[in-house]
Amino acid sequence: MSNTARRRFDGAVRSALRGPGLAAMGVLALTVLEPRRLAAQVGHEPASSPFRDITTRQSIVLGTAWFLGNPSETGAGAKPGPAFTFRLETRLSGPVDLLATVSLIESRRDVLNPYRPPATRVASRISYGLVASDLGLGLNITGAKSWHGLAPYVAVGLGIIIPSHGVVDTGGYAAKSNFTFVPTVGVRYLFGRSLGLQFEARDNTIRYEWPLAYFRPTDASGNPLSITPILDPAKFDNRDVTHNYSLSASLVYRFNF
Questions:
Q1: Which residues contact 130 (CB under 8 A, 6 or more apart)?
Q2: Mind listing the domains of the chain with CATH numbers?
Q3: Can you tell me the distance from the alpha carbon of 99 to that of 234, in angstroms, rounded to the nearest whole number?
Q4: Distance (Å, rounded) from C-alpha 112 to C-alpha 75?
Q5: Which helix (H) or strand (E) segment is 160 a member of?
Q6: Nearest-angstrom CA–CA distance, 182 and 105
Q7: Angle, alpha carbons 88-94-96 (nearest 5°)
Q8: Measured in whole angstroms, how far is the alpha carbon of residue 155 from the centre of its chain?
Q9: 206-242, pLDDT tens digit by residue?
Q10: 234-253, pLDDT tens digit by residue?
C-alpha cells in the first residue's frame, strides 16, 4: 500500500472513532457495567438507606411530663408540677396526623387576700389539679418515613382546660375552665415496627380573669386601702393569658386498625 493510501485509511479510522463508532463503543461499555454500581452513584441501596417506611397508621401514646406552670404576675395561677398524658394518633393523609390528647396535671396555686399587705398576702397554697384536653393536627417532617429511626414532627391543637375544683378566693377570684391553644414540637424514636419512644415540648395557654380587688382594694365602706395592690391600677387589664410549657417522655405503641 502506498503512503498516500495508508494516510487515507488511517484518517478514515480516526473519523469513525470520533463519530458513530465512538458512541457505539460507549454504549457497549455501559451495558457491561453492573446495574448495582450505577445505582450506587445515584443514592443509597435499600439495605443501607437511613430512611425506613412507617407502615403503621395508628398509635397509642402514654407518658409522663413536667408541667412548667406560669402563675402569672399575681402568683395566683398554676404552678409547676407533674403531669400524665394519654394520646390517640391516626394518619389522615400523607404526612398529616390527627392527635387527640388528654393530660392530668398536678399543679398548685396560691390563694391571695388582696386586703392584706404584700408580706402576708398569701393566705394559703392549695392543690390545683387540671384536666387538659385538646384535638390537633400534626405534620411529620420526614413524611411516612423515619430517618435513622427518628421521626420529628410539629403540631397545633385547640382544647379546654378544666380545674378539678373551683375555690372562690377572699378577693373574688375563682378558677374557671377556659379554652387553650396548644403548639407542639417533638420527635419519635422508632426501634421496631410497633414500639417507640416520644419526646415532646408543648405549650398550653391559660387565661385568667382577675377581680377588681386585685387593682383597687377597699375596706367594708368602699374606701381605698393604703396598701400596695396586687396589680398596678394604672395598667388595668383584668384578663391575663399565660404560656405554660411542658416537657414529656412517652412510650408509643403503633398498629393498624
A1: 78, 103, 104, 105, 107, 161, 162, 163, 164
A2: 3-43 (no CATH), 52-255 (2.40.160.20)
A3: 43
A4: 8
A5: strand 150-163
A6: 15
A7: 40
A8: 5
A9: 999 999 999 999 998 999 999 999 999 988 888 999 9
A10: 888 889 999 999 999 999 99
Between CA 76 and CA 121 the distance in angstroms is 11
State if pTM tops 0.85. no
Residue 52 DSSP SS3: strand
21, β-bridge pairs: none
Give the burial class of 107: count Cβ atoms within 10 A of its Cβ; 0-12 exposed, 13-18 middle, 19 or more buried: buried
Instruction: Give the Cβ contact number of residue 204 at 10 Å.
Output: 28
Residue 14 carries which side chain, given as an amino acid letter? R
Grid cell at residue 89 = 394518633
**Distance (Å, rounded) from C-alpha 160 to C-alpha 179?**
4
